[in-house]
Amino acid sequence: MTPTLPALAVLAALxxxxxxxxxxxxxxxxxxxxxxxxxxRGIWSEEAYARSQRYLAASTRLGLAREGFSLAxxxxxxxxxxxxxxxxxxxAAFPGEVGAGLAFLGALALAQALLDLPFAAWSAFVVEAxxxxxxxxxxxxxxxxxKGLGLAVILGGxxxxxxxxxxxxLGGMAWLAAWAVVTAFSGVLLVVAPTWILPLxxxxxxxxxxxTRQALEDYARDEGFALDGVFVMDGSKRSxxxxxxxxxxxxxxxxxxxxxLLDKMTPEQLVAVLAxxxxxxxxxxxxxxxxxxxxxxxxxxxxxxxxxxWGGLQEAFGATRPSIxxxxxxxxxxxxxxxLGLGALxxxxxxxxxxxxxxxxxxxxxxxxxxxxxxxALSLANLxxxxxxxxxxxxxxxxxxxxxxxxxLAAHGPGPRPSGAA
Length: 422
What we know:
Helices cover 69% and strands 4% of the residues. It is mostly helical. The chain folds into two domains: 37-200 and 301-328, no CATH class; 204-286 and 351-388, Metalloproteases ("zincins"), catalytic domain (Zincin-like, 2-Layer Sandwich). The chain has a four-stranded mixed sheet, sandwiched between helices. Strand 3 and strand 4 form a beta hairpin.
């Protein structure tokens, strides 16, 4: 690498982003409080609270080591002629520009995945296991990564090939064509992922008949909300942590509950969780989030096209023949600070949506108390950090911290209760 000013600017952007992320994690650990917050007393024990802090510290240390190692490997690759060597190897194997680009970027992605593999294994089989979360077997761990690799090659490869071809052949309109392709691809994934992709990793079974299913279906019907089904996902296959999520669009909307969630919540609390998810749909959050993501994609691709015209930058990193794929790799590095800022803005919008969905769920039959109790149960099951630092919240949290959500729910008052409830 030739230390020109543009090259140093790219490296500075990358290092700044990593340093800010590391600072947020360090401050997060430093902000831990020894006193169990009052709203969680009676649900959390002092011992569980202490365990959550040890879990946070262990996870943070691993995360910092993971990111530091990745950054060191990347800087070594850039400074020791890796760009020139890998570009030459890709061109030797695939003479065409699109093929060489796929080989170049695919090799980088594969190298990153392999370098991250020991950290992923340590996270699952040491850190998560130490705190009682991990239930992943070595077979599941390996199969997950092989399936992920297969999807990346088939789906990611096809999408990347289309983007490379557009930038290679369409001149100044390339970013618009690439934007259209990525948007269409994202829309198709929204439709097919629940039935074609997610089942590759987990088993989804209809929730058995009983009080819980009846309560969920009754609430959805009362709201006039058509559900394709209520499913139980075998989350216990990998972890004891609990969650629920909403997928699908149009008439194919479905709610999926982790099997680890069912024994931690009452039917009333699960209805509150469903009400929260229905709130996202009723308030247009899913649609708005899709279009905001689409606009971000368009901005990214438009800036990428401008960046590709930055003369001399690729040569500064050792590329003997400027290309679309090397330019896109360098853009991905230079883009990091702006991506972090846009991510923080996106998270702020997401947190606002979560507050609105909580307010919607507060009107469910169980009132705000049902959702509050559900959030308390989830935070305990997952040993959530109850006092995250504001910088980390701004940069990474798509949901408000649990104490904020509980405070806002308490402001709604006791709310409606089902007939005959205590």
